[in-house]
Amino acid sequence: MSSSTASLAPTDAGHTYVVPDAKGGFAIPTDLLIADKWTAGTSGKRIDVLNPSTGEVLTSVADATVADGLSAVDAAAAAAASWAATPPRARANVLQRCFQSMLEHADWLAQIISLENGKALPDARGEVLYAAEFFRWYAEEAVRINGDLAIAPAGGNRIVVQYQPIGIALLITPWNFPAAMATRKIAPALAAGCTCILKPAEETPLTALAVGEILRRAGVPAGVVNMVNTSDPGPLCSAILRDMRVRKLSFTGSTEVGKILLREASYNVINSSMELGGNAPFLVLDDADLDAAIEGAMIAKMRNAGEACTAANRFYVQEGIYPAFVEKLVEKMGALKLGAGTDTTTQCGAMINRAAIEKITSLVDDAVAKGAKVKLGGKVGEGAGFFYPPSVLADVPLNANLIREEIFGPVAAIVPFKDVEDAIRMANDTEYGLSAYVYTGDLKRGMQISERLEYGMVALNRGLVSDPAAPFGGVKQSGLGREGAHHGLLEFTEAKYIAVSW
Ligand code: NAD
């Protein structure tokens, strides 16, 4: 709560949180951001924010009611016309200042992410830089919302197409990338000329609130970005989606919640973008460069300690390279230091909560009971924080539950294969389709395999796909639409066609 550094807080802030021992930040307002004011909301209740590395309460944030959510819609509606009419260059300038300000606060923001999410500081810092890039990218895109002009085939008229802001957007984000998932939505919404309401995950509200204050200070006008945290997201989000003024839903989270929200969005036929769960396969062919494949596997599996929608969930490794791959992965994963996110020596941080540990434990136990061999880890340790050790399971049978479900933790499940056709079939045998990885020394073959993988994104001889300049998103039950690139901007626009004769 506010203390000696309270003077660093915005003047209207009520409750605030000061990050212990952190330099260069400010007291984070922990209320709701509505119409440029920090307000405690109408419930009188607060939500505890935990440190997953210790299990202790860090602070609390305001708990929004449905009425608070609708006040945020009022604020977004009041700001909508003037923000849509703000010249693209002026919108770009605001976004550029947001980018600069996030960079200036990078270490401090990383500290907040590590505190409330548990991830290791290098992962947190990487996230902040990635998150900031969305402001830079969309500052550049804001001035390139070009339309189309064509002569109608019959020759009678011109077809003029203009991309207009879609309208007020509800943005809902998960806890695993609390900064990047927020900026990946806020930046294109603002670039397109939309106002928005962000509903961050209840586990990690502080990062979003810190970003909210950074945006205010960077000159985002009142009501353009509003933020509401709640312990009961269903009713609040449904009420917002049933308000006729709201025209866009952009959601990142589990497929299960995505399906609920699609049903809610159908009530008013709200345009929806969905970034949902993944079950990424990681294929390693005999001709792959072993060291490169291991390096890529470590990034694909261990970035964020495995708590990433793009995380490699199933490794399919060809028989010739299989023993060496398993041995080296065990060596590399076993060398990682497990510890509190904010400890500067930590390489693998804590999981988000107790439920996550229980889910990983049950998936590992199930695989072992069905015949998987534990090569590393595989057992949760003692202690107050929510830790699971880096683990490697070899010879995982295809009927193990973790072949079908997201592990969302530091567990590598490895399956051998003989024939590449089998590997492709196994890789595609899932209802998910977010990202896939392929390692091979033959680029032509790699491209052919990539084209046959039923995924929105394929990393070929790389362990990372995320890039603000590339269209991020999934097929099948991993989602609808794309974030990043020019595609992400178009998600916040509506094509207006004008038939004109002149
Ligand atoms: P989650 O679905 O439980 O929660 C996501 C958000 O939805 C949170 O803000 C939560 O409060 C909110 N929510 C929950 N129930 C709701 C309801 N009934 N109505 C409205 N909102 C509701 O997911 P999570 O556990 O926070 O995140 C992990 C999941 O997110 C994983 O499945 C992961 O793969 C996915 N994810 C996907 C991407 C992507 O880009 N595809 C990125 C990150 C995470």
UniProtKB/TrEMBL annotation:
Active site: E275
Keywords: Oxidoreductase
Residues in the signal sequence: none
Pfam families in alphabetical order: Aldedh
Keyword hit for Oxidoreductase: yes
GO biological process: gamma-aminobutyric acid catabolic process
Keyword DNA damage: no
Span of domain Aldehyde dehydrogenase: 38-498
One GO molecular-function entry: succinate-semialdehyde dehydrogenase (NAD+) activity
Family membership noted in the UniProt record: Belongs to the aldehyde dehydrogenase family.
Protein name: Aldehyde Dehydrogenase
Taxonomic source organism: Ancylobacter novellus (strain ATCC 8093 / DSM 506 / JCM 20403 / CCM 1077 / IAM 12100 / NBRC 12443 / NCIMB 10456) (Starkeya novella)
